[in-house]
Every structure is written in C-alpha cells, then in structure tokens.
Structure prediction request, 900 residues.
Amino acid sequence: MNDERHPSAASAAGEVQTRVNNRIIGFSDGVFAITITLLVLTIDVPSNLASDEVNGFLWETLPQVVIYAASFVVIGTFWVRHHRMFDMCRAVDGRILILNLVFLGFVSLLPFPSDLLIFDDQSTSAVIAFSTVAGAATLCEVGLWRHLRRHRELLLPDIPEERIASLTTWRFWSLGVFIISILVSLFFPRIAVLMLLALLPLYELVHHRHYHRHDRTLYLLRDDQ
Amino acid sequence: MNDERHPSAASAAGEVQTRVNNRIIGFSDGVFAITITLLVLTIDVPSNLASDEVNGFLWETLPQVVIYAASFVVIGTFWVRHHRMFDMCRAVDGRILILNLVFLGFVSLLPFPSDLLIFDDQSTSAVIAFSTVAGAATLCEVGLWRHLRRHRELLLPDIPEERIASLTTWRFWSLGVFIISILVSLFFPRIAVLMLLALLPLYELVHHRHYHRHDRTLYLLRDDQ
Amino acid sequence: MNDERHPSAASAAGEVQTRVNNRIIGFSDGVFAITITLLVLTIDVPSNLASDEVNGFLWETLPQVVIYAASFVVIGTFWVRHHRMFDMCRAVDGRILILNLVFLGFVSLLPFPSDLLIFDDQSTSAVIAFSTVAGAATLCEVGLWRHLRRHRELLLPDIPEERIASLTTWRFWSLGVFIISILVSLFFPRIAVLMLLALLPLYELVHHRHYHRHDRTLYLLRDDQ
Amino acid sequence: MNDERHPSAASAAGEVQTRVNNRIIGFSDGVFAITITLLVLTIDVPSNLASDEVNGFLWETLPQVVIYAASFVVIGTFWVRHHRMFDMCRAVDGRILILNLVFLGFVSLLPFPSDLLIFDDQSTSAVIAFSTVAGAATLCEVGLWRHLRRHRELLLPDIPEERIASLTTWRFWSLGVFIISILVSLFFPRIAVLMLLALLPLYELVHHRHYHRHDRTLYLLRDDQ
Prediction:
C-alpha cells in the first residue's frame, strides 16, 4: 500500500496500468439504491383522499403493494448477484465499466414496466415488457461473467476456474425464469407475477445451497480486524 | 492488511471464507438517504399557484409538513439504530445481507403510508398502515439482532453478551410504540401521528440514556488518527 | 491502524469509546446529492406537448430554470460548507449525529419551498418559506459549530481555536442573507430570489478570501500518495 | 499513512495544507446515479390502464424508451469521462470543488430537456435545449482540464503533460457533437436524437482507441492486492 507499485509508471506500448479505484462499486450501489427506492413511486396515491376513503383505497392498493414486493425482490436479487460477482473481483477494466453501465441502464429501466404490472387485471404485454428488460439485464450479467472468465487477472487468485464457469452457466439459465413467466402470462397473467416473485429468489437459493452447503462467507466491514 | 489472510484460501468443506466488503453499509445508506429525501415529494404542490394564493396554500400545507417531520423522525431513528447496530459488527454473512434487504424493503415502502397520513382529517387506516410497515421493519431489526447474538463471530470482540441481549429486547419492545399509536388512532386519529413523532425518539433517548449515562462514543472519521 | 487501540476495550463508567466509522459522511452526501437532483423535478413538464409548442414552453419555463439555479446554488453552498466543517473534524459523537440529521431534514425540505418560488409572479410568502427553511438549516450549522468548539477532541489537532470561533460567528451572520431576502421580498419579491442567488455564494466567497488569502488546501483523493 | 504528514501543520501564510478527503467523488457519483435513474421518470405512465390497452401503450411508448436510452448514453458518457478525469488526479483544490459543482448542476438539469425530446414529433427547440445543457456541462469539463493542466500538483506524477493537453483539446472538440446535432435538428429533427445517441459514445470510442491501442488500465477495487 505504501509502495510505488500503483500507480505504476506505465506508458509504454502494451503495458498494463493499475490504479486503485472502486468508483464502479459506489456508482452501482447508488443506481441500485435509487431504483429500488423509486419503486414506491409506482404506487399511485390520489392527492385528495377523505379519511373514510383511505380504508377502501388501501384494500384496492394491496395488489400494487404485491407488485412492489415482486419488483423489489427482482432488483434485490440483481443487487445480491452483483455483490457476489464483484466480491470475487480483484480489479475491473474499461470493458467491465461499460458493460456494467449497460447492465445498470436495464436495471434502472425496470420501474417502468413494473409500473405497468397490475395484479387484478394483468396483461400479457406488461409481463413480457418486465421480463424482457430483466432478461436483458441478465444477459449483461452473463457477458460480465464471460469477460471475467477470459481475464483471470481481474479475479481474486483464490477463485477456482470451474466456479466461474458454473456461475456463468447458472446466470444464463436464470433467463429461463423470465421465459417461463412470459409463457405462463400467455394463459394465466395473474399467476405470472407471483412466479417472478417466487421463482427468481428460489432459483438463487437453490444455486447458493448447492455450492455453499459446506462453507460460509464472512464479509469483514473494515480492513483492520 | 498486507498479509495473505484475506481473501483466505478457503474452498474446503465447512471452512469459513472471509473477504473485506462493506457494500452493505453504502447500499443501506443510499436507500435510507433516498427514502428520507423522497418524503418531501409527499407534500403536493399545485403547478399553477398565483402569487396571492401561496400564502393561503402554505397555511393549508403546514399539517403536511408536520407529517413530513414525523416520517423524517421515524426513518431517521431507523437510520441511527442501523448505524448503532452495524457499528458493533465486525463482519456480516449472507443471511444478514438478505435480512437487511428485507428490512430496507419495508423502510423504503414507508413514504407510501406516510403519503396517506393527513393531519386534519386523519383516518385510523392510514395510521394502521404506517405502523404496520414500520413495525415490520422493526421485526426485521429484531431478527438481525437475534442472528447477531447467535453468531458472536460477527460482532466486535469488545461487545458484552448482555448488551446484545438487552438491545434485542429493547428493539422488540419498541414495537409497542406502533401498537400504542394504532390503539390511540382508533379513538383520536389526530393525536396518533403526534405520538409517533414524539414516542419513538423519546423511547430511543430513554434507552440511550439508560445505557450510556457514563460513557461516550467517538466515531473517528478516518483510520489514521 | 493495525494496533489494538480501536475498538478500544471501554465499557467502564465515564470512559470514551472510539470506533472508526464515517457513515455520517456517506449518508449526508447521499441526502445532499438526492436533494440537489430532485430540484429538477420542480420544473413542471406537460406530458403532451406538440413540437411547435416546445419553443414557447421553453421561454415560459426559463424563469423556473433561474429558480432551479438559485436553489442549486443555495444547496450547493450548504454542501461546500458541510464539506469544510467535517474536513476539520477528527471524529463525531452521538450529538453531532443527531444535529446533522436535523440539519439534513431542513436541507431535504428545501425543494418544497423552492417549488413555490415563481419568478414572474413572485409572492412574499414563498420567499419567507424558503428563507425560513434555509435559515433553520443554518441555525443547525451554528449549533454544530458550537458543539465542535466545546469539544476540542472532535477536531483535528492543527485547527486553531480562533478559526472555529470566527467560523461560528460567520455562520451565524450568514442568517442575515435570508433576513435581507425576506425584507426585500416585502417590497420587490422578484429581486429577492436573485439576491438569494447572488448573496449567499458572495458571502461565502468574501469569507473564504478573507481567511484563505495566503494558503491553499489540497484534498488528497487517496491515502497513500 | 501512519505518519504525521497529513494533516500537515500548516497555518502560515502561503503554505499549502493537505488533507485526505474524497467526498467529491462520492457526492459526484451520487448525483450521477440519481440523475441517470430519474430519467426513467420521464417515461409517463397513465395511472389507469386497462389490461388490453397495455399492448398498444407499449408500442406508443417505444420512442420514449429510445429517448431514455439516448439520455442514458449521454449521462453515462459524462460519468465515464468524469471517472477517467478524477482517476488521473492525486488531489483536488477548492476551485475544482466549485467547478465540479457547476458541472453537476448542468448534468442534473439534463432530465428536464430530455423530457422535452419526443421522437415522433421532434421539435428543433428541444434538441437545442438538450444540446445547450449538455454543451454547458462539456464546457465545465474543459475548464476542469485547463485547471488541472495548470496545477500539475493535482495530477498523479506519472501522467505525461501532453496527455492532459490532448485530453483538453478532445473535450473541447466534443462540443462539436452537440453543435452538429443542433444543425441537423434544424432540418431533420428526428435524426438529431439518434445522432446524439450514436455520435457521443462513438467519439469517445475513437478517442479511446487512438490513445489506448497498446495499453490497458486495470482499476484495482481494493488497496491491498
């Protein structure tokens, strides 16, 4: 830390410069935090409610709160995955910066199709829109994993090769959750939202149980302990 | 810090991996900051106010500003508590990551029932909705404390066992503030909001005074001083 | 950093515990960033504008952009001041945590009176509302400075006593900017907004020039350089 | 890091004080993250859509999603540039703090003209408004680069002089993208938006390829690796 290694004096051709910089983490956390908090604005509140109308309004709005929960679960799952991915990284390069930005673009678009989801009178189109945006974000994740797998120098030295390979595969198959939701929404639109709510975290849980049955990760909050 | 201890080479079964990672703090602070700032959007401003209507409008809106203050106090109290909890932590594990996410889900939902609270013409339902969401967030806190108590390795070594136990109990009883508010709102809905405004910080103050009469905590802003 | 000093083993009565914790900075920056960005939402955009109406609308909205600039300048000034205050701090205690939270409460309320300010048809009430909220935030700052002056252990060791005293006085007198704006708004409401826009940064500039004529502060972005 | 060098005991006239402080990074990331996420609110969603109207509404809204993408690309490009600029910095001074604040003021104003951009029925005025605000932000960037070039002590020691000079020039010429968009919008308003979408990242890509053909920068996420 106190050495002259970084910033390394590298301007010769073909050399790799290293710098200490974790803005990508702070920026991503900011976008996730805002997106997840903006979801509450998808619940419309009329500005002039009389006190005796509030009760009825609350019952009517309950399905919207379910949608809020479903969207929260989806974006929360994306955050937990993002956390796990960058937790394995030692460094990022320019391409990851760009790919991550595109990924965040799809994540922060999610409140829009989420606003279209209506529980009582669910349309297939809204589920397709939500699943397409969430699927595009998942594809970016797959791209990030592929890039990480090809550039071992970005990963921490103790991450085994096969773990990255299996994670890339798992991420790819998690697209299936969205495809299944679209298929279900063609026949039972109402159930499709509940499936998104249940399937995505379930998928993650199964994956996590499968790989982390025996070990446990502690995230130290500070360096010096 | 410069040793090879973290990331420890742990992939054997049953071993505990440690990594330095405090994204949970930054992400939580982001969600708290946005939720507390979105509260101001619950004050509705008509887009076309003539200059002579502004005065009357301001007096009409004053109760809404009181609601803003009450919600700000509730969410601010949650932040101070969250700050104190993670201040005692040395590390977090996967379960805390998830529990904290659910906790933040309830916190960021708070602006919705807060928007329903109307001071002049207060309905019991709105107070119940607000107290239920705030109570659910409190339950998550109790869950977090219970998990911390059972996993001593997550806590800093100088935190005495009985302090965690008493904090868990205090958090649990703070649910009473919301239950009392609901009971009061059945008969005097207007007063219930003021109670939330006053009772929750009072409760925290009493607790804090009780335990920290004699000591004082300084939070160093930087490592090297 | 690698010693056993912090967290110091302090649970005896009257002892001072120290912990490394800079969440107050991250949380405050979050609230400032969101408040300053929410200001753009005070510019109302009709949802269905024909292409030939956009031009006229833009000219009509120009005064609102001036209001946006004025509010941005006020909140930006608060941030720069906050930056300078905590830059002198070595640590914070519980009272600063609470006072800072109240301060942030007033700062994040500012977009509401800012939304009431209308350049063309300015009402005195709106200027009074804005100045009152901004003045209350300034009072919190004065309170923070007073607390810092009385607790020298919170400040960095190289900050001279008289500098804190003079800063407290200057902050107190900056309340005058808001009082003058209110007085001016009684007679010339339109000019009062421009005064806020001009006076507050001017006041800071004069103060800064007065004290920092000869020295210059560099803020290092990383520890190790 | 453990020495007594910073905070250096500097209160004599003409001396340079140094402090470790990277709040400017966190605050800027916050403003960028919120601005980029608020863009999604520029897509208007009617509150009462029947399930059979959602499909038609989605097709109608598609152009708005293109606008969202264009604005996202512009703000994202600003973030990547900001990231690269401060990545070369060793420290910031008071003037950079202020210039950066003005820059962020223009960036966070961008969602307003972005809201005026309508793909189907594009007006020249909206493109001019968007390009003016984005151009003003670019001018601030040029100002920041000029200041950095004149104060070598703010830059990392391994940054060659000519690189800063060329970057200043490139930033200046990137104003041309906005000028070309305005010119095109006079005749083909619809195409102008697509040009913004395509030209700005293309310009950055060409610049990046030109200078970084042979080297590659790794951003280490943590200090100790």
Remarks:
- Chain B has eight helices and three strands.
- The radius of gyration of chain B is 21 Å.
- Chain B touches chain C through 54 residues (CB under 8 Å).
